[in-house]
Amino acid sequence: LSDLPGHFVVGVCGPQGTLNLASHETTGIDVHITPERIILLDTQPVFSLSVLEHAMRNDYIPDNISPELWLELQVNYTMWNFLKKAEMLKYHIPEFPTIPSLASVDPGIEYYPDIVLVCNKTSPADFTSTKHTSICDLLNNMFQDSNLKIFDNKRLPNVFLLPYENQPLRPKGEYIGFTYLNAPDTFNVLAESMRNQIFQLPKKAGKKGQVSEKEWFRSSMRIWDIIRKSEFITEYGKLAAKLREM
């Protein structure tokens, strides 16, 4: 990490198998820094196949739904609900607690990062306007009262669908518009488009945009310490544990 500003932080959070998430044995966050000073945060999976194992053991899965489909539906909803709980629990956590001049600026204003939802390993049948509209409607209903920055200026959610890397969206040679789509080109083009749009998200302005990489790291460590010692989060954890036991 350097003493210079200008970095861009991208974090990945989701179930095992999302993009290049760490394996299930990993604890915490792996940090990678590119030559372009992009800081990539690769987190441990927040959900795992233990969810499916528990559901099958307790007969939670309806007979008319396959275990694989049930898990996919549960992970999507659980991930969205996870984001809403994180929004609730971050109440009054400063963005740069190690920098007094920034920690005291607009204390009543909460900071929210830009959130991009990525659906990888998507089947060809899902690349339709009908499916996309359905996803947008679900997200609008789920996050209509949320302050999370999931939507663009037109109230469209930041959602990207990525196909299997080696699976074509259409049978080989089928004509679509003015181009032929084959498997490698389709995945690479969509992944590059997603990457470019993520990097084009608004950067911080003013003094917050001049924070160095080392100061960002120190603030991140301090935020984690604040979260661990938060009475609000501790009480929520106790309440959630009691509800699970009921």
TrEMBL record:
Q: Which domain of life is it from?
A: Eukaryota
- Which one GO biological process term can you cite for this protein? nuclear-transcribed mRNA catabolic process, nonsense-mediated decay
Matching InterPro entries: SMG9 (IPR039177)
Q: What's this protein's name? A: Uncharacterized protein
Species this protein is from? Gigaspora rosea
